[in-house]
Every structure is written in structure tokens, then in C-alpha cells.
Amino acid sequence: MSFILCKNDSKKIYIAVGESESVHLAVNDLIKDIQSVCGDAELTSVREEADVFVASTQSGEFANISGGREIFTHEEEFCYRIENGKLYLLGMDDLGTMWAIYTFLEKELKTPPFYLFEDIQVEHKEKLEIEEKKVQEYPHTKFRGWFINDEDLLSGFQSKGKRNIDY
User: Fold this and answer.
1) Beta carbons of 113 and 25 less than 8 angstroms apart
2) Contact partners, residue 4, CB within 8 Å, separation at least 6
């Protein structure tokens, strides 16, 4: 059974207890993008009435939500799964869960990651049907880079480093 978004339908999203603020913010983006593409979405605190489930292995509810079938072996690993008309956005940790949300938005809802900044209009649809599937990935690079504006943060690594900006 596929996951269906319709113009006059609202999906209920359940976030596992204990998820980080960053996951909650990513879910806010999920809600906005669903509203932009097709239909509506809202949060629910009742797991049994949800259409969309968001959880990481850091949550005590992960095994119940995922059905105990997801095994993650890498940091930031994630999967999104559509099964029996429900959407599961799951991750190894909070970053993995965020990657699940944003990858789903990009691949399935076709919302470009930076459409708000690039002034791109998202295509509105009357109905969007996504077939049952499971997508599981993880980042293949372990290290992150420094942004050029972080030079003040690097000053502390000098022998007598002093931070010039007080945040």
C-alpha cells in the first residue's frame, strides 16, 4: 500500500519521545514542504493515530516504531520506509534522522534542498502517491570541513590563541 498525499488530506506526524531539538526543527521543515507540495501535516502525541513516524536509535521507542527490523552500523546512517500506507523516517542518531527527513523531501517530494534561498517555486500537486519502498544510506565521508568564517574559532589552537569574538 502506497503513501498518499492529497490536497484536502492531513497527515499526522509522531516524533519519538526524547528526540533532539534538531530533529524537531527538521520535522517542521517536513511539515512546511508537505504543505508546499500537496496536502497538510500536523504533529500528534498519539502514536496509534500517526501516518508518519520519526525516531532515532537514541529513543526508547525506536524498536516499537521501527518494528525491530532496522539495523544501523554507521554514524548518521538512516532509512526511510513506506509500508502499509505509513512513512517511517529513522536514523542511527539525530543527524541520521535529519538526513532521513531531508533525503525523503528531496527524492520523493522533489523539493530542492535550497529552494527557499534559490527562489525556486516548488511544484504543487493535487495528489502524490509514493509506492512502498525502503531507502537506506549513510554518509561516506567521516570528517567535516571548516567554513572560512570560522577562523576566529581556530585562533584557540595557536600557542597563545585568543578569541576575538565573544558570542
Assistant:
1) no
2) 85, 127, 128, 129, 130
Q: What is the DSSP letter of 140?
A: S
Q: Is the pLDDT of residue 120 over 60?
A: yes
User: What pLDDT is recorded for position 50?
Assistant: 97
> Are 91 and 72 spatial neighbours (Cβ–Cβ below 8 Å)?
yes
Give residues with Cβ within 8 angstroms of 145, minimum separation 6.
Answer: none
Residue 4 β-bridge partners? 129
Of how many residues is the chain composed?
A: 167
| Cell numbers placing 139 | 554518509
Residue-wise pLDDT tens digits, 103-112: 999 999 999 8
For the residues 139-144, what does the mean pLDDT come to?
A: 72
The DSSP code sequence of 7-76 is TT-EEEEEE-TT--HHHHHHHHHHHHHHHHHSSEEEE-S-GGG-SEEEEETTSTTHHHHHTT-----STT
Structure-block grid coordinates of residue 74 = 554507521
